[in-house]
Amino acid sequence: MLIQRRFAVKKPTYMNPEEATATLKLVHQCPVFTGLEEYELKNLLPVLGKKLVPKNELIFSVDQEAKFLFLIEKGSCMLSLKGKKYKTMTPGDIFGEIGIINEHVRTGSMRALEPTTLITIHGEKLFNPEIIPARVSLKIALALARRVSYYLRSREQISTQELIENGETDFVEFKSNLRWNPQTQRKDRAIEHAILKTMAAFLNAKGGTLLIGVSDEKEIIGIGEDRFENVDKMLLHLTILIKDRISTIHMEFIKFEVEQLQGKYVLRIDCEPATVPAYLKEHSEEHFYVRTGPSTSRMKTSKIYDYVRMRFR
Predict the structure, then answer these.
(1) Where are the alpha helices (DSSP H) in 30-185?
(2) How far apart are the C-alpha atoms of 119 and 70, rounded to whole Å?
(3) How many CA atoms lie within 13 Å of 94's alpha carbon, on the beta-carbon side?
(4) For the chain, what is the mean pLDDT?
């Protein structure tokens, strides 16, 4: 009979049993640690800590030695790469893994956007067999390797299922419907407008992927609610919307297809960074949209010239 050895767990003195349980629950919800069994998860207690970060404080900077993984419990942070704002991190997001898995220095900087509570995970201790069982470390290392390979792939190479599992980001957004309003039970131009705003913003920024038929909670709803006769009619409707409200020129930067997931159909729209500005027509006016973190914003007229000059020069 095979007896599975379980390592003794030493709880940090700063963490009472109730706090330890709550912290492990948050950690287990992170994709890096979801593959661990409950008894394996408890082995992480010796490497966990907490850190309170004031607003605007730098968590780490470029070329700094990488010692910790960080999981956001409360608050939000901004990741910057090569001096440019890249991605907003919110509760449940983990960061710092590239430096840890490469045993190298940081490739970007991270700053708190508001008072933030971080769960810290000691990288060196995480892979020390005297502290963490080897089988647990191996599971975590494989999960981290998958995340790093995810970053190295272009967004178009990442499966729709994987995009959904990783949730909304600065470059991925979910929409439940293309045109149908479930509250009023009728077609709604405002919903179409929201779709086009996001696409225009992706085109004007660094590109992005829009998934229609997926809720904000990552639930696959499907596009059946939009009441099109068939998929071809829906794609034709979307093509006409883009040509009429954005422009025919921008069609070359947009790719869309319908995929079946969990027995339902999801519309995936991949937008590349456009080489010419994308203005969205609204009645008799045209507006310019950009991505600000994980949301879409209309840019003030006074700011458009400088942005276009820098982005499309």
Answers:
(1) 38-41, 97-102, 123-126, 134-152, 160-166
(2) 6
(3) 25
(4) 87
